[in-house]
Design brief:
The chain is α+β, with helices and mostly antiparallel strands. The chain has three domains: 272 residues, BirA Bifunctional Protein, domain 2, CATH 3.30.930; 109 residues, Herpes Virus-1 (2-Layer Sandwich), CATH 3.30.40.230; 101 residues, 3-Layer(aba) Sandwich (Rossmann fold). Helix content is 40%, strand content 25%. It contains 18 helices and 23 strands. The strands form seven sheets. A seven-stranded mixed sheet has the order 3-9-10-16-13-12-11, with helices on both faces. A five-stranded mixed sheet has the order 20-19-21-22-23, with helices on both faces. A three-stranded antiparallel sheet has the order 5-4-6. The radius of gyration is 26 Å and the shape is globular. The protein binds glycyl-adenosine-5'-phosphate.
Amino acid sequence: MAEVQDLFKKIIAHSKEYGFVYQSSEIYDGLGGVYDYGPLGVELKNNIKAYWWKSMVQMHENIVGLDSAIFMHPTTWKASGHVDAFNDPLVDNKTSKKRYRADVLVEDFIQKIEDKIKKQVKKGIKRFGDDFDEAKFRATDGRAVQYAEKIKNIEERLGQAMTDNDMVALRDLIVELEIADPVSGSKDWTDVRQFNLMFSTQLGNIAGAEGKLYLRPETAQGIFVNFLNVQKTTRQKLPFGIAQIGKAFRNEIIARQFIFRMREFEQMEMQFFVKPGTEMEWYETWKTTRMNWHKALGTSPDKLRFHDHDALAHYANAAADIQFEFPFGFKELEGIHSRTDFDLTAHQEHSGKKLQFFDPVDNENYVPYIIETSIGADRMFLAMLSTAYTEEDVPDAKGGTAQRIVLKLNPVLAPIKCAVLPLLKNKPELVAKAKEIFDDIKLDFNCQYDEKDAIGRRYRRQDAIGTPYCITVDFDTLEDNTVTIRDRDTLEQTRINISEIADIVKEKISWKPVLKKL
Ligand code: GAP
């Protein structure tokens, strides 16, 4: 556990040191749950968003894009159910006076049991060596089975309490499991209360409830209220989808685990409108499609799993998460929800405007059903950073070994695609040649020119930010127009002609092989 915490701390420190993520308003001691993306962070995040957009909009003739406003008519949120039901259960510890999300306390408790199972598995690996079969072990080892049953039972009770909105049952569960305050160790809990997560503000000079505006807690509603606009202007037929990337805001009771749970974050959501009765088929299709999206980037399948929901949100008739193994355990990365016709019907009722599709094949009007895929850009960022962060031993110049930190990001996501390095900075002819190369290839992709420090240190710096290639300009370059190209992962250095650089890098960072896997 300490090891895991250490790794997470290292990733956070690395993010700051290299300009990926900073705490917001740091000079004022920060603002809880709000973060800023630095020069490399914004590149990585943009690449993640580009991957999502390409896979949704560019790859599907029947999915189109939208960029709707953050502010919406306040009735939107009444209709969607967010005013009445977008709550988290909170509980205070009377001794420490600390506030927690009651369901997260239970989830953390479950995680501890999961960790115990993992310990058992480790023992099994030691005992059985190469013959070890993890699935069989989990199904037959007495302790592992007992722990798994306990988890199942707790998850069912948690799910039921959340679905029924039963705060007494939730408190009973916390007390029964003897969950203690992680800060004080006290088990003296208040009642569990519901807390609405929406931020609100005031429109212009209109005082009171009339002018109350909400910062959207999900981007989805902007898509729903535009359903007919988009359908009519694009002449799409069902099934079709609308994709959107944008900011969302939630007054999380406890924003924590770095950019995992933030108060201001970014969502990438796609709402897929289908004929009623076909929604379960499409739900399964989108579950598979979205899992493939993650795997196509090269993320290890061991780090990804589905988690089907026992507790369903007020709008859903089926829901699953794609969970990723973050440094602090398997947690939700993306949600796939079958939202029925709940949203469109509610907006019809509240607006008095029809939100229906005329089906020319069946010659009938109906309110479409919706399958939603929703992933946080920030969570995806954290997933990519934590899976890419690697500490490893590599050969050093003196024949020994040295440790390096390398971000093994898929090259399509790397913030900088190629670095151009003159071997020595005090040789004007090398600097001039390196700058000439840089000025040419920067027209093709994002590159960096770096002349500071010894070449080995510059390589390490580029490894630490995940740059796939480094180009070194030396005295031979001046003679024969060749450079050394160094591969981030293999460390192989090859001599190539300057004219080949752009094509080699372009091939490495091409989206095509990734998109082809989808
Ligand atoms: N429209 C459906 C919806 O918003 P959700 O499960 O609440 O569903 C979808 O959120 C995704 O948004 C999550 O899987 C997660 O990746 C991201 N997300 C939600 N709350 C977040 C937060 N506080 N900070 C960062 N990302 C968050």
